[in-house]
Amino acid sequence: MVEEIGRTADGDIIINVGPQHPATHGVLHLVITINGETIKKVEPHLGYIHRSIEKMCESLTYRQFIYVTSRMDYLSSHINNHACALCVEKALQIEVSSRAQVVRILLDELTRIASHELWWGAMAMDLGAFTPFFHAFRERETINDIMEETCGARLTMNYIVPGGIMQDIHPNFQKRIKDFIKLYKSKISEYDELVTGNIIFQNRMKGVGYLSAEDAISFGVTGPAARGSNISCDVRKIYPYEIYDQLEFVEVLETGCDSFARYMVRIREMNQSIRIIEQLVDNIPEGDFQTKTKAVLKLPKGEFYQRVETARGEFGVYIVSEGGTTPYRIKFRSPGFSNLSALDHMARGSKLGDLVAIMGTLDLVIPDIDR
Amino acid sequence: MTNEALKAIITELLPAATFEESGQWLTIYVAPSDWHLLAKKLRTEAALLFDFLTCLTCIDWKTHLTMVYHLDSTKFRHNIVVKSKLGADNPAIETVSDIWQTANFHEREVYEMFGVNFINHPDLRLLILPDGWEGKKPMLKDFEDPINMIRL
Asked: What are phi and psi of B120, to 5 degrees?
């Protein structure tokens, strides 16, 4: 039950943040106990956008269920689709052509940059700076245009399907990506000048939201949030899928364990994504974009688990199949859900004003948490 | 570490455990009463160090429920799956939220969706479902809702 809003017996104040608060980036409801300005407890109440996606998937076929996964972490929809496609391909032992693999990785990395850019703009806006949002969206729109042209959608692409990609890339695909890289490189220094180097910004981020490495692992925190605590957890490196093991990029790690470290991880990670894209954009192999598969996919009896690295961390798909055309049970291990569970631990003892700086660097996407 | 080596160590920790190797990772079946003790050993045993609970979920098999725990070691990078069979009436198992803190939220989700009672859980309340939710658990196979039934 939601605790009554007001005063507790020992004089602490209980307040609501959300579910319609702009800094919660969606419908997240936090019930916070404060003593003066100091946070004593943060209690998330979820479910405002719970659509029961796992239950829905039980009555969808293996071609259909991918479409609802775009609606979970809508900023990493390509990567969610990718995880599901990989899981089905693993179960059916489908070989994916190298052309499809390369295009998939290109799209994944573009998605990661787009997601981090939105996060960067929103993060700065949470802290009171409105301008960065426009700077971030200037570059992000270019990525969305690439997606629109090739995938036919700007947000929920549903472009990656079991066996490859839905249709071949648009003739402009490579040129547009190269244009984007040029644009990105000419603008990225603005990000540092505008926000990273800003002393007010740094004062608000440094030493805030401390998360030790042990706690991060125990809470199941993954992605940039964990790498800010110097934990090597990039699925692309530790359990490589597709051709990530043949690409040159480094796993970005920071040792600060605070909000600023998590901020820096994401900023540096965008450059690594650009590096991956540069390696692949001129080397898209010729060939089929989709392996021929049966119209109706039937998974063998058994259990299949596939993990990928989304912009927010480790996303896992767990399919339990009874041999039919629909899954018996599907579990989505969403990164946001585990990352959010660490929020109470990180925020305790900080000032109320720091809460947005902590929450911002966890990069929460609420549909991803509620599913 | 190979499955054989993992099996040898885990058999030593819990002789009653049974194994299955057909899946992606080594699967261990434990009785609900043995789980908490084994979990603690899996977490602390120097050769295993399963410190990362990747995924915690439950499956409704109509006649019984199965708890599924995916474990990963951030040091050794080996994975195992632990399963525990629970009866359909009053399913209960001990919490592991004292060993892996991420289990706190995941167990609350399983509690409201499947009705599994986690013994000794510090804060077993509804997490996703609205306050005052009563009746059948939505993720069970025989769940029926007269108003908002999801049927596709």
From this structure: 70, 10
Read out DSSP for A257-320? Answer: -SHHHHHHHHHHHHHHHHHHHHHHHT----S-SB----SS--PPSEEEEEEEE-SSSEEEEEEE
In single-letter form, the type of residue at position A336 comes to G
Chain-wide mean pLDDT for chain A?
A: 88
Nearest chain A residue (CA) to B56: A333
Please give the CATH architecture assigned to the domain spanning B3-119: 2-Layer Sandwich (3.30)
Query: Given CB atoms, is B25 within the 8 Å cutoff of chain A?
Result: yes
Q: Does residue A1 sit at the B interface (CB-CB below 8 Å)?
A: yes
Measured between CB atoms, does B149 come within 8 Å of chain A? no
Domains recognised in chain A with CATH numbers: 6-370 (1.10.645.10)
**Is B138–A341 a contact, with Cβ atoms under 8 angstroms apart?**
no
Please report, for chain B, the start and end positions of each structural domain, with discontinuous segments joined by +.
3-119
Condensed to tens digits (0 to 9), the pLDDT of residues A222-251 reads 999 999 999 888 898 889 988 888 888 998
Contacts of A329 in chain B (CB under 8 A): 59-60
Chain B: closest CA distance from residue A146 (Å): 33
> What is the enclosing helix (H) or strand (E) of A110?
helix A98-126
Query: Which of B59, A126, A308, A325 has its CA nearest to residue A118?
Result: A126
pTM of the model: 0.88
pLDDT tens track for A261-279: 999 999 999 999 999 999 9
Sort out which chain B residues have CB atoms less than 8 A from A342's CB and list them: 101
CA angle A269, A270, A276 (to 5 degrees): 90
